[in-house]
Write a structure and sequence with these properties.
Length: about 200
């Protein structure tokens, strides 16, 4: 938290309204984005939430002087993603060579399936060791989060129109038969009406 309030060494902080080379408004926007992300993961404890957001912003502020082309929000989002993915990999014991794009998605789903927000909110982004129940629940949920995605190819097939196709293939005969049946039915109804009302 100290780095978020005090100047980062080597950054031009002599100006008012500037922190780590970026305007304070940019850092406020970055704070809001990171906080919203953690809220989406259902981190409700305000103290934990504030600490996590400041941890991400501290990492972004350390990068800010060396990367002037990126906004504070971009730096914060990149650091947040890196921090969360590294934590998922540590908890799930996934070696660096097996990490891929699905780690983030499946890791977030595993958090929710393992009910991290309800049972183990204080374990999120905390360095290990973690409780065995938490690690087991996360690993089991990660495996349940879905198999690896595979690309598949769908070839077009002709439409099956069912009985409608059969009727059209027989020509006009079914329609003629149907019209004849309906005509006989209507004549029968007229006959019954005349007999009962005369």
């Amino acid at each position: 938290m100290d780095a978020a309030i005090n100047p980062i060494p080597g950054s031009p902080l002599g100006h008012t309204g500037v922190l780590a080379g970026r305007p304070l408004d940019e850092w406020n926007d970055a704070y809001a984005k990171v906080e919203n992300y953690f809220n989406a993961l259902r981190i409700r404890n305000k103290t934990l939430l504030g600490r996590m957001v400041l941890r991400v912003l501290e990492r972004a502020m350390l990068r800010a002087p060396a990367e002037p082309a990126l906004s504070a929000t971009q730096l914060a989002v990149e650091e947040m993603d890196r921090l969360v993915n590294d934590w998922f990999a540590d908890v799930l014991q996934i070696p660096p060579e097996r990490r891929d794009q699905t780690l983030s998605t499946r890791g977030r789903l595993a958090l929710l399936l393992a009910d991290m927000p309800g049972k183990w909110q204080d374990q999120f982004l905390r360095p290990g060791p973690w409780p065995n129940e938490f690690v087991s629940a996360m690993r089991e949920s990660y495996l349940r989060a879905g198999p690896d995605f595979q690309l598949s190819r769908m070839s077009p097939r002709p439409f099956d129109l069912g009985p409608l196709a059969t009727l059209t293939q027989l020509g006009k005969l079914p329609y003629l038969r149907m019209a004849l049946i309906w005509t006989l039915f209507i004549l029968l109804l007229i006959l019954v009406f005349k007999l009962t009302h005369s």
